[in-house]
Amino acid sequence: MKKAGTGMLVAGVMSGTSGDGVDVALVEIRGRGWRRRVKLAAFESWPYRARERAAILRAANAAAISVAELARLNVWLGERFAAAVERACRRAGLEPQTLALVASHGQTLYHQGRPQPYLGQRLAATWQAGEPAAIAARLGVPVVANFRALDVALGGQGAPLAPFLDYLMLRSPRRARAALNIGGIANLTLLPAGCPPESVRAFDTGPGNMVLDALAEEFLGRRYDRDGKLAAQGKTHAGLLAELLRDRFYRRPPPKSAGREQYGREFVQRLLRQARRLRLSPADIMATAAELTARTIALGLQWNDHDAGWEIIASGGGVRNRELMRRLERAAPGCRFLNSGEFGLPADAKEAILMAVLGHAAWCKEPGNLPSVTGARRPARLGQLQWT
Asked: Looking at the 3D structure of the chain, how many domains does it have?
């Protein structure tokens, strides 16, 4: 096994809140701390089949589900993640045993970053399924998983985690930058010029693709609105948008995080009921939802004293939605938009790269969270190690 000081080949595995599929990044990492050097060696992505995705979303959206189904899904996801790593290695001409480490985020089934009453206590809770023992047993490689739990136990939101990678690779001594990831949930990392890590602010802004993708399934019978074509045909309904923007989450000061609990199936069903009472067309509903994502991201840019235009470095599946990006540029005038690929972080691969870097930090016995971002009481070494 390669040592951290001389470089490691780490597989980062990501399955996002949209439940679209499994991403695997093979990442070469050298050095430690904020001098760590990261190079993407290979990236592969495999979508879930329709019935597989339906099972994942059923578990994530359910108010009640059997323990047996959850247990089976947990193991099935672990096996699926391991198979994805095997395929990624084969396509790169490598044996899985070449890897020093696998870092798996898991599939988020529940994320509640703010404490709520339960059995006489106030508790926050997060759960990412995908059994790490199944991954380790199949690949014969150590696995780091369960990255969010310790931050939550320390009073943090357990999210977002991406700012660790954003600060490592995107900070600038001269330019104010905002790293934007538009996945199922959208999140921002604000990096003022020359800022130290304890000054980084990052948070979820609200829905990214989650609501848009659910509406695409409703109206188009497919997973997403390609290029935002349906949204581009519609008009934003000002009244409905104003009603949606009354959600207190958007103006709550950070740290804050969101998930399917806020913007999943129940949110979409309420949105559809409101829209149908207004007799809106599918295109107008989609346009209003796209405007909601754009406006709430723009609101997030205001959580800083920086008054000049941000250099916004965007990643995630949402960057492929041309209509969404057009609306975002209009909602954030004076900002310059760049793709994260220009900084060695291809938009689709960024979250999988993040997992590899967090796994490497855990292996090096280094903190992987930023308390200024999550609200945790202290920096912490994230993740739990599963030996083979």
From this structure: 2
